């Protein structure tokens, strides 16, 4: 692909690093930004910089947060007997959009993947066990809401092994989600039914 400017090529290269955006799409976005008013492009750049500089993660659940504790963990109206374990913050958003769940969350930050060099130590599994062991006795059920992939299942089995002797029920979402699919791309109705029709993990 030939570029009329080195500046455009650099912008296209950086934007195309984003997931799901190829170089052609990146080029269209760059031309769109060039046509916009300078303050529009500056607002985007400022928002992204503020995101990187100021984003925080909840000390309890590891979800994205503006403060030390996220809005879900600090909400007294949430059902504190339920703890839903997910891979990413985007999965929290997906489940919240179903309006079928009112408990707490625990974001692992990924799944076990030996191929990618991700082991249990790279995930927030130890803090999950600590939540169930220390000061979180009101948790009665842990819902494993991980994507139904080989890596997701491996992670679920590992977590189940770690918590099976604790006085909590361990369940998993019903497999309305297609095997090999990503949780964040599931439609809200299917995901909602999966949460409501969860089954005990075994």
Helix content: 25-40%
The CATH class of the largest domain, by name, is Alpha Beta
Mean pLDDT: 90
The quaternary structure here is: single chain
According to CATH, the fold-level topology of the largest domain is Dna Topoisomerase Vi A Subunit, Chain: A, domain 2
Work out the number of β strands. Answer: 7
Written as H for each helix and E for each strand, in order along the chain, the element string is HHHEEEHEHEHEHE
Amino-to-carboxy terminus distance: 52 Å
Largest sheet: 5 strands, mixed
Integer count of domains:
2
Low-confidence stretches: none
Walk me through the topology.
Elements: H1 6-15, H2 23-35, H3 38-54, E1 56-57, E2 64-65, E3 79-86, H4 89-96, E4 103-107, H5 125-133, E5 141-144, H6 150-163, E6 169-172, H7 188-196, E7 199-200
Parallel strand pairs: 3-4, 3-5, 5-6
Antiparallel strand pairs: 1-2, 6-7
Helix pairs in contact: 1-2
Structure described in brief:
The chain has 202 residues and is an alpha/beta fold. It contains seven helices and seven strands, in the order αααβββαβαβαβαβ. Helix 1 (6-15) packs across helix 2 (23-35).
């Amino acid at each position: 692909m030939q570029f009329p400017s080195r500046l455009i090529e650099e912008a296209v290269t950086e934007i195309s690093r984003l997931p799901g955006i190829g170089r052609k799409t990146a080029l269209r976005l760059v031309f769109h930004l060039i046509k916009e008013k300078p303050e529009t492009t500056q607002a985007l750049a400022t928002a992204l910089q503020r995101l990187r500089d100021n984003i925080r993660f909840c000390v309890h659940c590891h979800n994205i947060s503006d403060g030390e504790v996220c809005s879900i963990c600090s909400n007294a109206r949430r059902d504190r007997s339920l703890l839903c374990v997910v891979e990413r913050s985007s999965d929290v958003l997906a489940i919240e959009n179903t309006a079928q769940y009112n408990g707490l969350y625990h974001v692992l930050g990924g799944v076990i993947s030996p191929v990618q060099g991700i082991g249990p130590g790279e995930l927030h599994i130890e803090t999950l066990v600590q939540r169930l062991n220390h000061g979180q006795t009101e948790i009665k059920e842990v819902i494993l809401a991980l994507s139904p992939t080989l890596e997701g299942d491996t992670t679920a089995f590992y977590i189940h092994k770690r918590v099976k002797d604790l006085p909590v029920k361990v369940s998993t979402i019903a497999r309305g989600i297609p095997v090999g699919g990503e949780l964040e791309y599931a439609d809200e109705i299917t995901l909602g039914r999966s949460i409501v029709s969860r089954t005990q993990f075994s």
